[in-house]
């Protein structure tokens, strides 16, 4: 009797499950509570731009380099590397930590060609999915091995930094960075925040070409920041997404990092080739952590790989091959350095042109920050409402925080852009 009851109830369960599957209610019930995610403040702008049929539209939203005709650029060194790679390599899995050659070359860019830390094998480093992936790996590592810690993030910062540490469940604190009135660095408040943070705090620093403000500390200020970090025993994670884009010289743009290294800090660095090699969609970058000795570096690297394995197993091979081919060949590396400088110089030229156009229009506002800021972005000081007007009335797309991607400004659109900015800033 007991056996019969068990069989009968199983059949009943099966019947009700089958009926449930057949009904549209059951099919639609799994995700009924899912609401659409908010649009990404940066990539959402690109979506809106693409959907606009206007022939006048201008995209100065996303930080992606364009040539003076507004077209995406593939660097000549990348084209040549691709020719060399084509058909000559297999497509096997990379190790969990990625391409050893690419990582070696990448460390030299950040730590210096003759870095003693590299020679002493004190740097734990893995290939990462561009800068985002490098930051995310670090955030996961931080959560796993320093679960009590928080991360101090500048105000403002690249919006995705917040998402990265939120999803890694690391609590976020902020530190002062930008001074709205001067459109420059709020150095005094920054130093106060570094001083007042609990000893041994984690800080996220932009190594150069701060995103979104285009405002970097001077060399002297970096030295003071480094000293204060030392006094407090803080950890610095440098996000270096724009090496070469600030001054046109990757070596010069690594100055902040070199100062921290000279001062004996055990730092972390997130590097990316999205911008400086134009390898946006290849997702190639590197996370490194400077350790006390080789033994510690081996342990840290193995743990970083362990974090990567269940997330994406091992990183993609093609972008890593491009980078190692370019940086491993002296001639191609020279070509790359020339091309990075060319991109940085075009942007600097566009800064001058935008400022001049606004001044020639008789603007009552000061626009000198356009040429004082550095890197890919100009933090214009425009309000979200003014940005909305630019989009609605002029089909100009940019992030609502007033950030202009100078990489999208060209000889062809700079007057149109200046005129539109003049109209919305003079009439509101
Ligand atoms: C940007 O800030 O526009 C870029 O870093 C692109 C991105 O992924 O947000």
TrEMBL record:
The keyword S-adenosyl-L-methionine does not apply. GO terms for biological process: amino acid metabolic process. Residues 56-421 form the Aminotransferase class I/classII large domain. Its EC number is 2.6.1.1. It is an enzyme of class 2 (transferase). It catalyses: L-aspartate + 2-oxoglutarate = oxaloacetate + L-glutamate. GO terms for cellular component: mitochondrion. The keyword Transferase applies. Its cofactor is pyridoxal 5'-phosphate. InterPro entries: Aminotransferase_I/II_large, Asp_trans, NHTrfase_class1_PyrdxlP-BS, PyrdxlP-dep_Trfase, PyrdxlP-dep_Trfase_major, PyrdxlP-dep_Trfase_small. PANTHER family: ASPARTATE AMINOTRANSFERASE, ASPARTATE AMINOTRANSFERASE, MITOCHONDRIAL. Belongs to the class-I pyridoxal-phosphate-dependent aminotransferase family. In eukaryotes there are cytoplasmic, mitochondrial and chloroplastic isozymes. This is Aspartate aminotransferase. The lineage of its organism: Eukaryota, Viridiplantae, Streptophyta, Embryophyta, Tracheophyta.
